[in-house]
Amino acid sequence: MTIIGKKxxxxxxxxxIRVLHSLDFEIKSGEFVSISGRSGSGKSTLLYxxxxxxxxxxGELIIDDKVIGDMSAKDLHAFRNNQVGFIFQFHxxxxxxxxxxxxxxxxxxxxxxxxxxxxxxxxxxxxGIADKAQSLPKQMSGGEQQRVAIARALxxxxxxxxxxxxxxxxxxxxxxxxxxxxxxxxxxxxxxVLLVTHEPDYSKMADREILxxxxxxVNERMELTADDQPL
Length: 231
Ligand SMILES: Nc1ncnc2c1ncn2[C@@H]1O[C@H](COP(=O)(O)OP(=O)(O)OP(=O)(O)O)[C@@H](O)[C@H]1O
Ligand SMILES: [Mg+2]
What we know:
Layout: E1 2-12, E2 17-28, E3 32-36, H1 43-50, E4 58-63, E5 66-67, H2 73-83, E6 84-87, H3 99-103, H4 105-109, H5 117-126, H6 142-154, E7 160-164, H7 172-189, E8 192-196, H8 200-204, E9 208-213, E10 216-218
Parallel strand pairs: 3-8, 3-9, 6-7, 7-8
Antiparallel strand pairs: 1-2, 1-4, 4-5, 9-10
The site of adenosine-5'-triphosphate has 11 residues, from helix 1.
């Protein structure tokens, strides 16, 4: 059970500008992999393609032996709903729902929200925001909202977690807390984690790093230059 990218190319615009240059990679089941590189190197673009939210311009993405481009819309929807937890660079909470209701959203669709309420509260507790369970997003800070979004992504114990700078909005204490929680989910449940981060310390917490430079994977750490340091 792996994620395999074969010659993944992504272009935007007309005339097309190439942002990802024929990337080949493999992410094994249970791995915790970081994607790093400076701003504009293609990290989010790569994460969106690997998480099936965007299509490559050419090349193939294969997850669990299925070619994603060949899957029906229905199968793709089921895969995203049942097996994937997304954490975006900017949180997307529903403004009219409380923190707890937002965390329980994936369970509500499956009519499992009553059963999973305890787990939802535990997740809020572990992120230090149990007291915000009944608060609306607009009553919380950006960092608190981000933690709610992370709790939501973890609720269903997905097989894959795709996270784009999940700690970007957080102070160092809470950022470390989030990283440790992701690591714990990875170790205890074998969840495959693919995480974009600017922070070298967090990148080091991963099993392996995919370093991007100008849309290409820099495989050898020896090739690191000052340009690859985060801004
Ligand atoms: N929808 C789009 N249309 C046109 N160009 C895009 C689009 N999305 C991304 N790009 C371009 O692709 C390149 C890579 O963008 P991407 O968002 O993947 O970078 P990143 O590594 O995630 O950067 P950051 O660290 O700032 O989030 C950038 O030059 C960006 O301007
Ligand atoms: Mg980005």
